[in-house]
């Protein structure tokens, strides 16, 4: 469905020395610098899959999505979606896709929402029957009735985002690109949006590419993830596998009384562990131990702690995907410098 | 055809809609234009009086009044803000939203503006024409309104709008390279003001310069339609001028398409 092959995008940027003097210099003799926003990005997405496309801020996610949607022309490399090269026949291509950029809106700012949908209906040539059915479905999942008569500029962020998602699904696209569709939203709205994505994916086999910083989006929606950092592929595979390979971190929280004075140092020395394998965080009446369960089994860790101090309560937390990704980001960053 | 209309008319409606919401903007625009006309009127009145009355390059004072008000109105009718719009959209990145829609980019820009043009015809052009004809009747005592000239004027304005739109589109595409168009737009507006004859009738220029300017596309944007309305052209010359407008419209259409093909590859969306 989606083939991205060695995508690369360069931007030219004028760099300026600091201060007024630098500004003058840049005015007459601008120094150009080439910034590589995406470099050799390759991945495939089969039909009907929901792909999580993740990476830290500035990793180049949006740039890649913009190339896939035909907004930006790749400097080199090629992408083919549904057998089409986006920039070759943009008008035809975009008719088959839907896209949401969380930080922008594709709605007409001054039109009531309802009218916007009628406009989109004409632009995408959706027939009356399909349109009605579609609107009913979107109304139901995204709860648009309450604000469908208000002008778009008066909507709250959550309402606007739901409206935008609905707009991107109106013409039953084959591929849906969602760039941070849940950014800045509360739990209820997030849930609405996830429901909509899941339903449309299940019912119509819509292929979805989703970027997000919200780990629960990924856990709930994505079959597979592609992670990029600094414009390069870092990981491509299932979430399950990621957790298996990197998810050895366990977290134990011990509740104690004030008297306990265990330190990280003590743990590390006592168990003979490296700094990267164990972290202790202290709070008033409790402390949290994060450790690599490959190096030391949970039972042993428990036993060791209990032998040192009096414990009121214990809780164990599983490998947190957020933690895994954070450590992956750090690794990716470290290997580069 | 009706299918095409159905897809683009919404852009026009959206344009009208936002015009109505930001109507103070529009009213300010119109009143500002009128004030400018009156300032120019008193300026030229002084010029005519100090030159001892009579004609000035074939223009009587009554002609001058018609020219001033009509050229200003025509400029407002054919004014296209598409270069500013493109500049804005590139600066804030919202151009990506336009590119995501399965529509022709330049047509979508044009239809967003057309609604405004139509409102201008109704609330600006018609009252100005009526006012000018009353003025002419009172100063000369004869009805000078010529329906044929008026219809040809409208035809010429349509061509003028297309030319103006395409010129502005080309300027707008420069934003793909320079990111911020503000300065370039100011340069463009003052150039057009001078070259289109809306500031000073081209007939007042030295003859070589005048001939050059008359052949340029800018003259088509205000000077040609107004001269047609005023009946300053013989039939043959008028047909030639209209033909020239049409040629420019086609050439600029092709040119803007060409620039677009190059520019779209250069697009770098800032932020987000």
Notable features of this structure?
heterodimer; A: 337 residues; alpha/beta; Rossmann fold; Alpha-Beta Plaits; six-stranded mixed sheet; four-stranded antiparallel sheet; 12 helices; B: 272 residues
Please provide a written account of the structure.
The complex is a heterodimer of chains A (337) and B (272). In chain A, the strands form three sheets. Chain A has a six-stranded mixed β-sheet, sandwiched between helices. A four-stranded antiparallel β-sheet of chain A has the order 11-12-10-13, with helices on one face. Chain A folds into two domains: 2-243, Rossmann fold, CATH 3.40.50; 248-318, Alpha-Beta Plaits, CATH 3.30.70. Chain A is of the alpha/beta class and 337 residues long. Chain A has helices at 19-28, 61-68, 90-94, 113-123, 128-142, 157-169, 187-204, 215-221, 239-246, 264-271, 298-308, 321-336, and strands at 2-15, 31-45, 50-54, 76-81, 97-101, 175-179, 207-211, 224-229, 232-238, 249-255, 278-282, 286-292, 313-317. In chain B, 78% of the residues lie in helices and 0% in strands. Chain B has one domain (2-266). Chain B has helices at 2-21, 23-50, 61-78, 82-92, 95-99, 105-140, 147-173, 175-178, 182-195, 207-215, 223-229, 235-266. The interface between A and B is medium-sized, with 32 and 28 residues.
